[in-house]
Amino acid sequence: MNTTPVTKRGQTMSYSVHEGVLELALNRAPCNEIGSLSLEDLESFSAALQELEPQLHAVIIHSERKAGFCAGADLRELYDRSQAMEKKAAIRGVRDFLERIHRVLNTIDASALTTIAAVQGVTFGGGLELALACDLIIADKTARFAFPELRLGLIPGFGGIPRLKRDVGNAVVRDLLLTGRSFNVTKAQQIGLASQVVGEGEALRAARATAAQVGKFDRQTSAAAKQFIKPIPNDELKKEIDIFCELFERPAVQAGLKKFVESTNAQPYLP
Amino acid sequence: MPTTEKTLDEILTLAAIHFKVPREKLSPDDDFFKALGIDSLQTLDLLTKLENHFHVELPDYELQGVSDFRTLADKIQARL
Predict the structure, then answer these.
(1) B19 contact A CB<8A
(2) Cα separation of A164 and A185, whole Å?
(3) Is B45 on the interface with A (CB under 8 A)?
(4) Which residue range is the domain that position B21 belongs to?
(5) How many Cβ atoms from other residues are within 10 Å of residue A60's Cβ?
(6) How far is A137 from A168, CA to CA, in rounded Å?
(7) Domain of B24: which CATH number?
(8) Exposure of A110 by Cβ count < 10 A (0-12 exposed, 13-18 middle, 19+ buried)?
(9) A185-195: pLDDT as tens digits
(10) What would the CATH number be for the domain defined by A7-262?
(11) Distance (Å, rounded) from C-alpha B77 to C-alpha B3?
(12) Looking at this predicted complex, what is its ipTM?
């Protein structure tokens, strides 16, 4: 049993090691929106994951925000930054951001460790993409999932479509993607997205119990099983970045982002 | 199948308990955003609670523009 005291606190999240499990705790108000600071913290976590891997058997990613696991990309930052620069520079910036976050999520996805997302509340867009990079999703009863990107004239850009397609049927992918609707844990378990559904506030406890269970097995065998059953869709992931950047160039996207950031409507954003 | 009035009553009771608002202060035609004082994230929470309680699936686009408990009850009733 490993008890290496590793703890690092970033501006938007922190990570620590407990008994062979690397735990990443997301904590940025209001709901862990992923912007440039989060990306830096995720890159730090990714480096630690690779460095510490030989000492560990599992990874848990969870949120300390009651509102949810993660509401996705920080659209306010995306809009503000794209407004502050020339169009070509903005597109280069978006591509650079996507390539960096793809590297992080690919590292999590391909890790030899067993990776678990413990989710609650809003798990939308980039948040769902982060969860999909993990081997298991354990969700509490408040969890809600969605890919709302089409509402803005975009597609998911953090690897969501290839990874969702890897895990569930294509008809389900089309439903979620083309309607932008959100769905609850019952549906998530029915379609095979969530492997466990637990009571409100119990996702992290269940994830820790699961991590302890996987720690009983030989690591090399677990890693071989994972590599066999969970191929990384590299070509589609690269294609997704290209499509996202092509779509991002269109004026409709800027209009959609503007409408989103300026909206004061209490209802979830809908076009 | 429960009547619309029963569905409405269950929605009001569930919302009152979950958002800690006295039940008697909620009326069917209230704007639930104002009556419950909820934001967009809490609205999603309410949607999940309603789906779990009534065992229905409510696509959020069907609730676009819905802001009062009575219309919400009609939408749920249509899926029971």
Answers:
(1) no
(2) 15
(3) yes
(4) 4-77
(5) 25
(6) 13
(7) 1.10.1200.10
(8) middle
(9) 999 999 999 99
(10) 3.90.226.10
(11) 8
(12) 0.83
